[in-house]
């Protein structure tokens, strides 16, 4: 009996190990560390250069290391979400899925008369777009899938976690230039469900990181479309968008198109079916597993 009492974690340890506590500590820890690293990058590296992309890659790696350190030293868990042995097969798969989905969606919009390619522009803002894709894809997936979805799932179950994180992901884009309520709803549906399902599929982060990075890079550099609002970047192709906002996405970009929402959400639901069939849906913490 004495040995069992000695082995039982203390009150402080049990409080820290509770999913809500872990969520708060890890979310703000990774967010603050990544923001500080990104701020430092802007101070020491010239934007639009190969060094800027390498700096962005370093920021992404730094965020991953902070995340893994939190899992190791706060959660006492091993690295089962970002194993190096899975990197070579899962990141390319994610990149392929993200690029293919955005290209498919853009092609449908073009067939409906809302998008056209004028000419090839050249390299354009290649290095800046690569840096943006790597940092946004990595950091946002660590925060929203690795931390928020995982810990909310531990408390409320898979379905509630997917719904809450999808809504939060959409709301997080409301402050972007050109955002609207429909744009936030579209992001919640297409990205929240797709990326959440991609994480639940393998219970690892490499595939959603790849999807997220390729989606942003394809729209920003390949098709020169605004990435979640703002000014259209100078990409590989000179393109134009014409037509109603439901088709073109308006000022927010093609992400806010109904076509994008349907294509990406359908892909997310396809992955969710796989998750259900492989028994990947978990109940709330008050239900015995």
UniProtKB/TrEMBL annotation:
The chain crosses the membrane at residues 20-45, 51-70, 91-112, 124-144, 156-175, 181-201, 213-230, 250-273. InterPro entries: Rce1/LyrA-like_dom. Keywords: Hydrolase, Membrane, Metalloprotease, Protease, Transmembrane, Transmembrane helix. Residues 124-217 form the CAAX prenyl protease 2/Lysostaphin resistance protein A-like domain. GO terms for molecular function: metallopeptidase activity. This is CPBP family intramembrane metalloprotease. The lineage of its organism: Bacteria, Pseudomonadati, Pseudomonadota, Alphaproteobacteria, Sphingomonadales.
């Amino acid at each position: 009996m004495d040995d069992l009492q000695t082995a039982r974690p203390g009150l402080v340890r049990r409080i820290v190990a509770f999913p809500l506590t872990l969520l708060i500590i890890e979310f703000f820890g990774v967010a603050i560390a990544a923001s500080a690293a990104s701020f430092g990058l802007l101070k020491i590296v010239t934007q639009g250069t190969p060094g800027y992309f390498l700096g962005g890659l370093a920021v992404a790696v730094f965020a991953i290391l902070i995340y893994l350190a939190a899992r190791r030293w706060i959660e006492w868990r091993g690295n089962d979400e970002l194993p190096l042995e899975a990197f070579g097969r899962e990141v390319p798969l994610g990149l392929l899925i993200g690029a293919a989905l955005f290209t498919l969606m853009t092609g449908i919009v073009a067939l409906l008369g809302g998008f056209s390619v004028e000419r090839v522009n050249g390299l354009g803002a290649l290095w800046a777009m690569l840096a943006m894709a790597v940092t946004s894809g990595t950091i946002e997936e660590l925060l929203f899938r690795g931390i928020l979805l995982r810990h909310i799932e531990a408390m409320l179950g898979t379905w509630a976690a997917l719904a809450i994180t999808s809504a939060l992901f959409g709301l997080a884009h409301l402050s972007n230039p050109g955002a609207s309520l429909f744009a936030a709803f579209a992001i919640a549906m297409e990205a929240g469900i797709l990326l959440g399902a991609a994480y639940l599929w393998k219970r690892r982060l490499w595939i959603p990181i790849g999807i997220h990075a390729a989606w942003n890079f394809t729209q920003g550099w390949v098709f020169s479309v605004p990435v979640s609002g703002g000014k259209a970047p100078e990409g590989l192709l000179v393109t134009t968008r014409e037509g109603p906002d439901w088709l073109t996405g308006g000022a927010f970009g093609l992400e806010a198109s109904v076509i994008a929402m349907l294509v990406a959400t359908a892909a997310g639901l396809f992955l969710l079916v796989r998750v259900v069939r492989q028994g990947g849906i978990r109940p709330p913490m008050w239900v015995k597993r």
